[in-house]
Specification:
A hairpin with a 5-residue loop joins strand 15 (433-440) and strand 16. The protein is of the alpha+beta class. The chain has helices spanning 2-15, 46-49, 69-84, 90-109, 112-130, 139-152, 186-201, 209-222, 249-266, 269-278, 313-329, 333-349, 370-385, 390-404, and strands at residues 25-31, 34-40, 164-167, 174-177, 181-184, 224-225, 231-232, 234-235, 246-247, 291-293, 299-301, 409-413, 416-418, 423-429, 433-440, 446-454, 457-463, 469-479, 487-497.
């Protein structure tokens, strides 16, 4: 009912230009034996939830290509053992065993790419059992994900990479990863919860308190008890060299934030209690938790629990924002301490994200994409708004300038040259740009025209003038990163003289 209500309201809002939220995403919604792609104002966009691969390892190649007798026996054995120990109920044992058996049967009837997707998820369950990682608290998420893949692959529309999928009657979101089927995506789910909270907080038509309760209740049921006693929301596929199950500090903190916000809005103390149980991730070292020593020597929180030396700027800042918000909403001293432990490291790291005309995605790493630069700017601005340090305000403003300011290009010389001798036409440019140099004679005829990409700094084109004259050199720059196509240019005269003698 909640989903239908949001869809109807979204249609009204979109018809009036007064605007569907800028973050509205699309989702493939499965309803029984049919599925349709729809706009849902609560669903995050792909840019908000993308998981850049942190390494060069092929994810799908790590899982065995086929189900094995040994794997099947391991799944049956662990279910029987946990039933015998009374760690799971008989109803759960029957339901999960049935899910596994039906999924294996469905797989035998599929062919090609559809079979490959379901096979990956099925074999992942067997891999967890063989590695003794199919523990009782992990089983709800593991078998739910397997069941959703069993439902989807026989006849639903084939998704594109990154597409999100939902199933009528549930608020959870799954994302399609090529070769790895539909995977639960905790970051996307908790961002959806935050969007729902925002609609209600602002009293917008898309507010749906029932959906907000449902999504958090569902996620509470899927929380996994990790070995150090805290709960986590896990990812269940091989990714960038990480072996499942792994967790994300950003997703964990976003979950804590969403739970704290909903507890206050809905007057539900149980959500605060769930969030408190998740804080242990930020006191525990990887790979169990996400607490580590940052590159500037202080405490840092990781995006990926399996990558202890990958310091991702936007993920770290969002982790801090989640902890900060929960500490204030719930008046929670532990969250406040965890925030205080790491905020100085964040302040020290931020200047190292600046390359002079853009941002880095990770410390001493590669540059941000357009979406990740904007995400980092938003998080810097969020910490600025929360008055957590001048450095956040400074860099939020600077990074906005990198997005909207046009490139500045200046011709640096020379102004004289000699005929038939190569000369370097030098320039400086303020940001990554497509730079064009054009040389014209006094009558307007173009004698030299070149285009190339240059990074921030100085550059040059080599030109060999033919014959004496006064030529006009024009250098023009068009910025490349933001898609706005802003330009700048500069011109100068170059006097070309005869060869001596």
């Amino acid at each position: 009912m909640g989903y239908v209500k949001r869809m109807a309201l979204a249609a009204v809002v979109m018809t009036a230009v007064a605007a569907a939220p800028a973050h509205a995403g699309t989702v493939i919604e499965v309803d029984g034996k049919t599925a349709h792609r729809v706009n849902d104002p609560a669903v995050p966009t792909r840019a908000e939830i993308a998981l850049p691969v942190p390494g060069r390892v092929s994810a799908s190649g790590v899982v065995a290509r086929a189900s094995t007798k040994r794997g099947r026996r391991a799944v049956y054995a662990v279910l029987r053992r946990e039933l015998r120990r009374k760690h799971i109920k008989r109803s759960q044992y029957r339901r999960w065993r049935t899910t596994y058996v039906r999924s294996a049967g469905t797989l035998r009837r599929l062919r090609g790419a559809r079979a490959a997707q379901l096979r990956y998820v099925l074999v992942s369950v067997e891999s967890l059992a063989l590695r003794k990682r199919l523990i009782p608290s992990r089983m709800p998420a593991v078998f739910l994900q397997l069941e959703r893949n069993r439902q989807y692959w026989p006849g639903m529309p084939y998704p594109g990479v990154g597409d999100q999928v939902s199933f009528r009657g549930s608020e959870l979101l799954y994302q399609y990863f090529a070769g790895e089927g539909l995977q639960l995506h905790p970051l996307s789910i908790f961002k959806k919860a935050n969007h729902l909270h925002g609609f209600c907080e602002r009293k917008e038509p898309a507010c749906d308190e029932a959906a907000l309760r449902s999504i958090l209740d569902e996620m509470t049921a899927l929380a996994v008890k990790r070995s150090r006693g805290f709960i986590a929301w896990e990812y269940l596929f091989y990714f960038g060299g990480g072996t499942p199950p792994w967790m994300s500090g950003m997703a964990q903190a976003t979950g804590i934030q969403a739970l704290g916000r909903a507890a206050q809005l809905l007057h539900e103390p149980k959500y605060d209690a769930t969030a408190r149980r998740a804080l242990g991730a930020f006191t525990t070292a990887p790979p169990t938790g996400v607490r580590t020593t940052g590159p500037r020597g202080g405490v840092a929180y990781l995006q990926y629990s399996f990558a202890p030396r990958l310091y991702i700027f936007n993920a770290f800042l969002q982790s801090l924002i989640g902890l900060y918000d929960f500490s204030n909403l719930a008046e929670n001293a532990r969250a406040r301490t965890l925030y205080a432990d790491a905020i100085d490291e964040a302040r020290a790291e931020v200047p190292f994200s600046d390359v002079g005309d853009w941002s880095l995605y990770n410390y001493a790493g590669h540059e941000s994409s357009r979406d990740y630069h904007e995400l980092l700017r938003e998080f810097l601005d969020s910490l600025c708004t929360r008055k957590q340090g001048a450095v956040f305000c400074e860099y939020a403003k600077k990074y906005r300038g990198y997005q909207v300011d046009p490139p500045a290009i200046d011709y640096e010389g020379p102004t004289t040259a000699m005929e038939d001798r190569p000369v370097a036409l030098r320039f400086s440019v303020s940001k990554l740009s497509a730079v064009q140099v054009t040389v014209t004679r006094p009558d307007g005829r173009v004698v030299f025209d070149r285009l190339a990409t240059f990074r921030r700094g100085t550059g040059a084109f080599t030109w060999t003038p033919k014959g004496p004259s006064t030529f006009t050199v024009r250098v023009a720059a068009k910025e490349l990163r933001t898609g706005l196509g802003k330009r700048d240019s500069d011109t100068a005269d170059v006097v070309v003289e005869n060869q001596p003698g």
